[in-house]
Amino acid sequence: MCDSYKADKMSRMKELVSILSKASEAYYARDEEIMSNFEYDKLYDELAGLEKELGITLSGSPTVSVGYEAVDELPKERHESPMLSLDKTKSRDELASWLNGHEGILSWKLDGLTVVLTYNGGELVKAVTRGNGEIGEVITPNAKVFKRLPQTISFKGELVLRGEAVISYKDFEEINRRITNDADRYKNPRNLCSGSVRQLNNKITAERNVRFIAFNLVSALNPDGSEYDFDNSRENTFKFLESQGFEVVERKPVTESNIQEAVEFFAKRIENYEIPSDGLVLTYEDIAYGASLGRTAKFPRHSIAFKWADETAETTLREIEWSASRTGLINPVAIFDPVELEGTTVSRASVHNVSIVREFKLGIGDRIKVYKANMIIPQIAENLTGSGNVQIPKVCPVCGGPTEIKALNEAQSLYCLKGDCPAKQIKSFSQFVSREALNVDGLSEATLEKLIDCGFIKSFPDLFELERYRENIVRLEGFGEKSYENLAAAIEKASHTTLPRVIFGLGINGIGSANAKLICKAFDYDIEKIKAADEAEMSGIDGIGEVMAGSIVSFFKNEKNLEMLERLLPKLDIEKPEINAGGQNLSGLVFVVTGSLNSFENRNALKEVIESRGGKVTGSVTGKTTCLINNDNTSNSTKNKTAKELGIPILTEEEFIRGYLS
Predict the structure, then answer these.
(1) Do residues 386 and 376 lie in contact, with contact meaning Cβ atoms separated by under 8 Å?
(2) Non-local CB neighbours of 554 within 8 Å, separated by 6+ positions
(3) Do the beta carbons of residue 167 and residue 192 sit within 8 Å?
(4) Which domains does the chain have, with CATH numbers?
(5) Looking at the annotation, which residues are catalytic?
(6) For labelling alongside 645, which of 6, 430, 562, 635 has CA 20 to 30 A away?
(7) 234-243 vs 3-29: helix axis angle to the nearest 10?
């Protein structure tokens, strides 16, 4: 099989996994059908055929089901050979001289968590973190849910490789967006990735969109024990890994004559690169030559790391702006005379917390040096004056209420203590009307700010009483009769909602939309039961931990919150899912539905009935499947074939109704 043909097939496999995963997510998470059963099965069969042809199964493929697994602790294991750090330089000229006339490969130095993988007989058998370089933690179940990581490969010998587990900036921002408490948000993608990779429950890892990008093939032994021949070429090892289905680090072949051009290519790329990177790695193309150089006590000599020489600029600090948030956290932001950094003009930099303000001894009028961390995020590098005259506000800059410095995670942060601070209100209202909550179309933060400033809304129920201020609202800048009518219609539409949307919209610390659904389902969509629940009952819900349980119980014990709910709930038309009178007779059973239906409007309708009785509907047939529901049990679909191979019953719709619903 030629390389270009295999590469095309691999590209198509990745495309199919992406298409089918999106279809499954839409169907199971949002109850939307974005393709027909026929089309899904056709693409599924194409993917299964490619997997069989290439002998490779990609992570996330709907043809396999990786079970979730929880452990009490991560076992530790010593690496066969120490994983040393690389020597570093910030000089582009030094990179060129380091090559010493040899060819090299220049690639990203990814900023995540290094993981060592071992495959045997084509199967992933072990994954271990770098740890301290000598001893790492075994995270094999977690690695099996990494995105873009092959579960099986066509190479049947023993393969050991290293790569970086990473989380993209986009996924990092989305995960942080769902965390309502500012203090609980992750500081950067690397911290989030490290925590995600080392979870004791790999279900959490799977939800974090961790990607694995290979950067080094350690060894490859054929089934007979002989070494696989890569013709002494490092580039050939990368191509081999790509042929096995791995996502491999972006790279460029270099010599002394073109390495400066290659570095400049990466320097421009990093501005919009989706994966965190803190530099580059230069490796000799000649494997034997690199190995012959040996190592020092600290570093191997076959590679060297290049760290970006951060461009710094000196400027004058003019102000510390204190920015309040929904949870009351007040973040300091440095405002300084504009300077050019990495091709853009910057005049602001987050200082993060009170501890950093004090550490830098910041003062208005100080001369400071600023830079862009990893050429992206403006930061203060140094305070050349250190006057320390910045005063930590005793009152909130938004509401004038008292503030307090609290120590969280070894860092001191400033908080507003006033419960009805407008800054808190704007952010709280913003979540309450967001798409995943009440979904009030067109109600922006700017509009909320106007309504709050005018005193028209002070708590959530006030949104549904705006008619009292109609004459005032239509005279606001940017408003008019038409704008008011549109807003009123959107609010009226939003009043017809569901309990999970309401629970999420309340802004309870740590409770996202998915958690809200779990809680509502556990308490039969009864708000009174939720209000009366204690922490033991809450934490007993699968997926709700002690911290989240404590947050929601505390919320419903608060008198002000209860008073607000007494006003809010009568204004809402909360649709309650039908709780099946037959009880939970399908609890613990797993079903797969395929093909057209007769007695039910669509698969979603049947899915709702099954779930209302405690059952679960999945997208693929596995050994855990109770039965496959398919009116055409003679078809040659993949689901039918798999069910027959595994001995899973295939029932028609009528047979299922008689056997399970009657």
Answers:
(1) no
(2) none
(3) yes
(4) 1-61 (1.10.287.610), 66-306 (3.30.470.30), 312-416 (2.40.50.140), 422-494 (1.10.150.20), 499-575 (1.10.150.20), 590-661 (3.40.50.10190)
(5) 109
(6) 6
(7) 50
